[in-house]
């Protein structure tokens, strides 16, 4: 079994992924899988789902395996010309790589269908620093990461970009109570939030942009959402 096949098999048998799919009906939803790889998650999502990747080999794999995978960068989604809206967004092990997580979340709102949900899987910095000495916890500080999160900062980053929080959990257990109990010791967290359709920046922030010519373009973008 090669590495690709092993990954597909791993996701097919993942309890965590199954818990998330069951909790939010992803098998019936039109999902945009951002940073989709070879489509190991994508093939479990509903009709009309798409994946986006920067690797042409993964785009070609999709064409040959009945998976709708397109070429594009997560931070420049408008250039991918998706021309459709989605009921859910899935991005696992992506958020910590982005140069601008806030802009990414704001751009998703442009292609969100109504109260679409976003689900981001992120390796988190532990509450107890000594845990970073354990192999299981080395993920958050990987050399190719440029952003670093814990449960609280994931929650705030998502809310302040116009998404209403549903959960910040590892989804190791389907039972919410048990899952919250193990959260402090979970090295990987999922933040789930719903599109806040009437989101507006606070007046103080708008005034800040209006008074600085360098932010004029950003202000015009936010008014389009």
Describe the fold and architecture.
- The chain is of the alpha/beta class.
- The chain has eight helices and seven strands.
- It has a seven-stranded mixed beta sheet with strand order 3-2-1-4-5-7-6, sandwiched between helices.
- Helix 3 links the parallel strand 2 and strand 3.
- It is globular and about 60 Å long.
CATH architectural type: 3-Layer(aba) Sandwich
CATH class: Alpha Beta
User: Which percent range fits the helix content?
Assistant: 25-40%
**Tally of domains:** 1
Within CATH, the superfamily carries the name Vaccinia Virus protein VP39
Mean pLDDT: 90
By DSSP (H or I, 4+ residues per run), the number of helices equals 8
Number of strands: 7
Instruction: List the secondary-structure elements in sequence, H or E.
Output: HHEEHEEHEHEHEHH
Content-based structural category: alpha/beta
Structural shape: globular
Q: Report, as a whole number of angstroms, the end-to-end distance.
A: 46 Å
Q: Give the strand order of the largest sheet, numbering strands 1, 2, ... along the chain.
A: 3-2-1-4-5-7-6
CA gyration radius, whole angstroms = 18 Å
Low-confidence stretches: none
The major sheet is characterized as: 7 strands, mixed
């Amino acid at each position: 079994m090669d590495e690709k096949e092993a990954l597909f098999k791993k996701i097919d048998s993942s309890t965590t992924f199954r818990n998330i799919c069951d909790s939010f009906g992803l098998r019936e939803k039109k999902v945009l899988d951002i940073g989709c790889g070879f489509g190991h998650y994508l093939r479990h999502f509903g009709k009309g789902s798409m994946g986006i990747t920067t690797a042409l080999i993964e785009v070609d794999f999709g064409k040959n395996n009945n998976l709708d995978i397109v070429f594009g960068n997560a931070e420049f989604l408008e250039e991918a010309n998706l021309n459709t809206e989605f009921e859910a967004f899935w991005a696992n092990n992506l958020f910590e790589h982005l140069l601008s997580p806030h802009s990414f979340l704001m751009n998703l709102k442009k292609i969100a269908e109504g109260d679409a949900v976003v689900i981001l899987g992120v390796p988190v910095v532990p509450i107890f620093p000594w845990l970073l000495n354990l192999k299981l916890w080395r993920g958050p500080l990987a050399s190719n990461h440029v952003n670093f999160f814990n449960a609280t900062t994931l929650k705030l980053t998502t809310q302040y970009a116009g998404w209403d929080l549903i959960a910040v959990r590892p989804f190791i257990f389907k039972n919410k109570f048990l899952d919250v109990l193990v959260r402090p010791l979970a090295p990987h967290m999922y933040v789930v939030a719903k599109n806040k359709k009437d989101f507006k920046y606070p007046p103080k922030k708008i005034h800040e942009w209006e008074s600085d010519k360098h932010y004029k373009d950003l202000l015009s973008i936010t008014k389009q959402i």
